[in-house]
């Protein structure tokens, strides 16, 4: 019989096929897509967050808005107080599955210039967010 010596795995070593589920954070505040830009900015300020998940009436996540993006819209010449979050996101913003590998998600986020990405289940309900450190 041959003995095999096992080396302990360092604690900071990540598994080879880490998924978004392993790294996602809590979803945070979720708002309806008929909310105006001004109200969304007020919600962000009171919740002390930099982003909001946006959902349709039926609760399906349609995307995410950031404080910086909303401030840019508000400061644009075309802005009116009637602009709603659904007007900014269109049909559906970028989202990811919890089963997506971290490598795939990070690549997609870098290509799109995103710092935060909603994580949704098979039905489109928000599970959390994936935030990249910059």
Automatic annotation (TrEMBL):
The keyword Mitochondrion does not apply. InterPro entries: CBS_dom, CBS_dom_sf, Diverse_CBS-Domain. Pfam families: CBS. The keyword Hydrolase does not apply. It comes from the Bacteria. Residues 31-70 form the CBS domain. Gene3D superfamilies: CBS-domain (3.10.580.10). Keywords: CBS domain. PANTHER family: CBS DOMAIN-CONTAINING PROTEIN CBSX3, MITOCHONDRIAL (PTHR43080), REGULATORY PROTEIN (PTHR43080:SF26). This is CBS domain-containing protein. It comes from Streptomyces katrae. The lineage of its organism: Bacteria, Bacillati, Actinomycetota, Actinomycetes, Kitasatosporales.
